[in-house]
Specification:
Helices cover 58% and strands 13% of the residues. By secondary structure, it is α+β, with helices and mostly antiparallel strands.
Length: 813
């Protein structure tokens, strides 16, 4: 029903009407501002606002510059010193200069201040020259007015987009906020002299504006608005010089009391204006100022709360501005996550497409291949034979059986000479030698075709596997983006309050991740060096709040004076791995064909791996190191372990036509649970030493880089604190020779080790094997030892009264 309504209704007219109404609203606002700026006069005779405003509007809203020009001239009719002719002349000169620049395509907004300065200078100098007297004072006032027009143009360029809400970014700089204040105060200057029931209109407007900004930005913004408004109003009316101090004090009090609501802010403004009015003015001035403040407070009470929130969103540092920034970042994250999911689906579909192509290629049966082979041979040998019909129609089955026998003979590479042809062949076919020759040639073509088909199949399979892996990584990235986009303001505030409750002042808290076991929190502080508050106080406090051990991952010192130090806190792992490695190259050479890797994979996983390349020396080293390097990168990117190993195998298969392979012995330890996954591809057994017991980990498969469909053996075990993992290349394991049970021999050697230090164990094992061969190194040898220990935090958590456990957000699925 909804879709039918959407199809039946045309929303374009509704949208066009709403856009038209919005455009009319902003047009009316701009024209009204023009009228007041045309009427504004400062320093008794200067009118720099009109021409600056017209020049900016000409660039930003060309559709209304005619109405704005007329409104400026009309406003100048009602000024205290009317000068509509001079305002019109200045606007005309600006218009002509802009049209001239447009002819040469040089009219840009950046040139507006210069154009305004020149036009104001020309018109005012013309007025001075046609006047009754010439004086240095007159020339000085011309320069002052032209300079003010120049500055106001720059102010209006920044202020008008903000006032009309057409600024692209919601984050305002402090300079832009000041420009908006100057524009509003300039508009209020145009209301100087207007009285409403004995109250000054500009005073009511200035105090109302002060209340709005004080409610939106607090005491600093309220006081700033008071200073700017009072300064500009005092330039328009010298008798109002006290307004600057009065409005600044009133804005300060209103901002300080804004947490109490509109009534409290209004009371602060009333109190500030009344105190200075009593001190400076007469009884009549006090009553007039009081009623003006009451009128401004009444306007504030009638103002919707949404207007104040809109202003707050533009003021840096306010809660509304921070929330709008977080909302914007959240929308960006959601859009990014959706795009990543779309790309992931694209890669998944591409992978499926390559898989279907390979499936179709594999479905070609043996019978179809033989049929195609027979047809090719028959087309070349029987097409021009006069006995074709007799062979392939009258004696089809007999001919087909004979051709099959010939093909079998060719396949077995035992093709007979013409004298050795079976009598049944020569009796049936008069072109037996030619058929055999053509069949041998076609068989070679068939074999080549089969080889390249296999290469295509393997290449497609590699691409399909890689696309599947990329899709999986992008899915994980999408989940990570969505999870990081969760709102964590309450948790950040809870951490800040807890830290400050201990007497430590921090400048900021940013929660990156609250997932159990993968916590990441950034704290910005300015503590003095030497006391180590982060490790000794904040980390134990966070451990208690979150219910898991938290440690300091790193501290980033500031790059320039005055900046805070960034401390990054994260989940402390429950287990830790201490490693030792020992190795030697065959014959005492410098380069060994064995490679090893010890690397953090992220998400609390630690990988230890050994790879043995084919042969010895540099070539073997290249193969083993390439296998481990590619595997390490794929695992760190988040790819599934089995898929990563298959991808490495495919890469090694395709990188060279020569025979190259490497063994891989990989163990991935979960540092939060000590649960370990072993992957062994053509490698020797590994051993786990648990006290006096030695447990072998074995697998039977080929090294990677030999066949396409490699078998990956996964063995998973729960390791215990104190367990020691021993991994080795075949140079170590094969040391006793074929006459000895190698596994039993190695278990005995490991079990008799008197030390539990990983490096000492590795050195001792290598030394034992070398001594067994009387000091001769008969093959590349590498032994890697890793001991699993329980992680003990340096500082234990402590319970602080009044601190509650933190509520974690739900994990994004």
């Amino acid at each position: 029903m909804k879709s039918a309504l959407q199809k039946g209704m045309n929303w374009k007219p509704v949208k066009s009407v709403s856009h038209a109404l919005l455009a009319k609203k902003w047009t009316f606002l701009l024209v009204s501002i023009a009228f007041l700026l045309g009427r504004a006069v400062i320093l008794e005779s200067l009118m720099p606002f009109a021409v600056a405003y017209f020049a900016v509007i000409y660039f930003m809203r060309k559709d209304v510059y005619g109405w704005v020009a007329a409104s400026l001239v009309a406003g100048s009719w009602f000024a205290s010193d009317p000068a509509p002719l001079w305002i019109a002349m200045e606007i005309a000169v600006v218009f002509l200069l802009l049209k001239g620049l447009e002819t040469y395509e040089r009219a840009e907004l950046s040139t507006a201040p210069i154009i305004v300065f020149v036009s104001t200078m020309l018109v005012q100098l013309f007025g001075v020259f046609i006047g009754d007297t010439l004086s240095w004072y007159s020339f000085m006032m011309v320069v002052v007015e032209a300079s003010l027009s120049f500055v106001l143009t720059l102010v209006f360029i920044h202020a008008i987009p903000v006032l009309t809400m057409t600024k692209k970014s919601a984050a305002l700089k402090h300079e832009e906020i000041i420009c908006v204040m100057i524009l509003l105060a300039s508009v209020m200057t145009g209301a100087v002299g207007w009285m409403i029931e004995g109250m000054s209109a500009e005073h009511i407007m200035s105090r109302y504006m002060l209340l709005l900004f004080a409610m939106a930005g607090g005491a600093p913004l309220g006081a700033s608005v008071g200073v700017v408004a009072g300064l500009i109003l005092s330039l328009a009316d010298f008798s109002a010089i006290v307004q600057m101090s009065m409005l600044a004090f009133a804005g300060l009090l209103a901002g300080l009391l804004r947490d109490g609501g509109k009534m409290a802010a209004a009371f602060g403004m009333l109190l500030g204006t009344s105190i200075l009015s009593i001190y400076i003015g007469t009884q009549a001035d006090v009553m007039s100022s009081t009623w003006e403040s009451v009128a401004a407070a009444t306007l504030l009470l009638l103002t919707p709360r949404s207007v104040i929130r809109i202003i707050s969103r533009y003021v840096p540092g306010t809660n509304e501005h921070v929330k709008s920034q977080h909302d914007y970042a959240k929308r960006v994250r959601e859009v990014t996550a959706e795009r990543v999911v779309q790309f992931s689906e694209v890669f998944r579909q591409l992978s499926s497409s390559f898989g279907q192509l390979n499936q179709n290629l594999a479905e070609v049966s043996r019978e179809e291949e033989i049929g195609n082979f027979m047809n090719a041979v028959a087309a070349k040998s029987c097409a021009n034979c006069h006995r074709q019909n007799a062979c392939w129609e009258d004696k089809f089955f007999h001919t087909y059986k004979m051709m099959t026998d010939m093909m079998t003979t060719v396949e077995e590479k035992r093709a007979p000479s013409p004298k050795e042809f079976p009598r049944a062949w020569t009796t049936h076919c008069i072109k037996t030698p030619q058929v055999m020759s053509i069949m041998s040639h076609q068989y070679e073509l068939y074999q080549n075709n089969k080889y390249w088909k296999k290469q295509i199949y393997e290449s497609r399979q590699l691409v399909a596997d890689q696309l599947t892996g990329v899709s999986q990584v992008m899915d994980d990235l999408s989940k990570e983006i969505k999870r990081e986009g969760q709102t964590l303001h309450l948790q950040e505030e809870q951490i800040r309050e807890a830290v400050e409750g201990l007497g430590l002042s921090v400048q900021g808290v940013d929660i990156i991740n609250l997932e159990e076991g993968n916590v990441e929190i950034e704290v910005y502080h300015s503590f003095e060096k030497g006391f180590d508050e982060c490790r000794k106080i904040i980390a134990p406090l966070l451990s208690d709040i979150l219910g898991e051990h938290i440690a300091v991952k790193s501290e980033v010192s500031p790059t320039s004076p005055g900046e805070p130090t960034q401390a990054i806190f994260g989940s402390a792992k429950q287990f830790e791995v201490e490693t030792g490695v020992a190795g030697a190259a065959k014959g005492g050479d410098l380069l060994s064909g064995d490679s090893f890797s010890l690397v953090e994979l992220g998400n609390g996983k630690f990988a230890v791996a050994i790879s043995d390349g084919m042969g010895n020396g540099e070539r073997a080293l290249q193969e083993s190191s390439a296998a481990l390097a590619i595997l390490q990168q794929l695992l760190q990117s988040g790819m599934d372990e089995k898929l990563a190993v298959k991808s490495v195998n495919s890469v090694l298969l395709l990188r060279s036509a020569e025979e190259m392979y490497a063994t891989v012995d990989l163990a991935i330890v979960d540092l939060y649970t000590a649960y370990t996954t072993f992957m062994k591809i053509g490698s020797t057994p590994s051993f786990i030493k648990r006290g006096k017991e030695v447990i072998p980990i074995t697998a039977n498969n080929l090294p990677i880089g030999i066949i396409q469909d490699i078998d990956v053996d996964f063995v998973s075990m729960q390791l215990l604190p104190g367990d020691t993992l021993v991994m080795m290349s075949d140079g170590i394991f094969d040391a006793p020779g074929h006459a000895v049970n190698k596994e039993m021999w190695m278990k005995r050697i490991i079990g008799e080790l008197a030390t539990d230090d990983p490096q000492e164990m590795a050195d001792t094992l290598l030394d034992t094997v070398v001594r067994y061969h009387d000091g001769e190194i008969v093959d590349d040898m590498t032994v890697l030892v890793a001991r699993i220990d329980k992680h003990l935090p340096e500082w234990t958590s402590f319970r602080w009264p009044g601190m509650n456990r933190m509520e974690r957000p739900r994990t994004v699925s």
